[in-house]
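Reading a protein record of the kind used here takes little practice once its layout is understood. The fold follows as a row of integers, each naming the local backbone shape at the matching residue. With these conventions in mind, the following record can be read line by line:

_____
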Amino acid sequence: MGTFWRVRLAASTGADLSGIGMTIQSRLDGLTSEMSHWDPSSLLRAFDRSGAGDWTPLTPDFATVIGMGLAIAECTGGAFDPTIGRLTDLYGLGPNPSDREPTPQETECALSCSGWRLLRYDRCERSIQQPGGLWLDLSGIAKGYAVDVVADLLAGCGIGHCLVEIGGECVGRGMRPDGDPWWVDLETPPDLRALPMRVALHQLAVATSGDYVRGAHTLDPRTGRRVANGVASVSVIHARAMEADAWASALTVLGREEGAALAVREGLAVRMLSRDGVMTREWISPALAAMLG
């Protein structure tokens, strides 16, 4: 996934930490072999190369991610879309770097064979159908899913107290050894004037999307253009990191007004930071305000 993983845990004396680490790495390697658009041998890339009308059987992990991705795509009107692999490739945001902006004609061509409504997903058969030329990109949801998977893996090993992080997305289970919950500071762009916010991840996950690490890399799946709506970061706290990851991406695309309205409608715990000239605007959803209170 092009990033790091880190786990803090409360384990019994004599626990085989090296073995636990190897088990985690093996599980993550398996997810990468399925859902990475960087790995030409992945299941995702095999789907991308499949012919129009072909069905691709999915693993349980892949099916879970694509099912949730399509559900959030529908809920957001396509502000989140797991089928924009052609667009991310066009902008050089995948394994094929590019030093220029695509032309309007190139963007329209990529959009013409993209879109979540084109992808058929058979939940019972756990398979997806290639409409023809469509490429997947699960980078806005798979990392969050991997965080959940590692936490669930540790629980299966009898470790119920842990903080799992993959590239900034976190989930906290149980408590710290000192009896405190797992405290996490929400990411804040360094150029913004905003008070720090620390949250307790007690059976909760958090994911943040923004433009302060990789620049303006977020694409609007509906238009095929880079997002330039002033939103600098969106943090979402949720029971599962997979959903938090996808919602953070979607709300970044939707922007201040539309994103805030959807967050309220869906009861999401959200902090949104945006730039307004030299000013910084902070918006906290009612669900997050209730948690902080």
Helices lie at 17-35, 43-49, 60-75, 85-90, 104-112, 142-156, 241-266, 286-292.
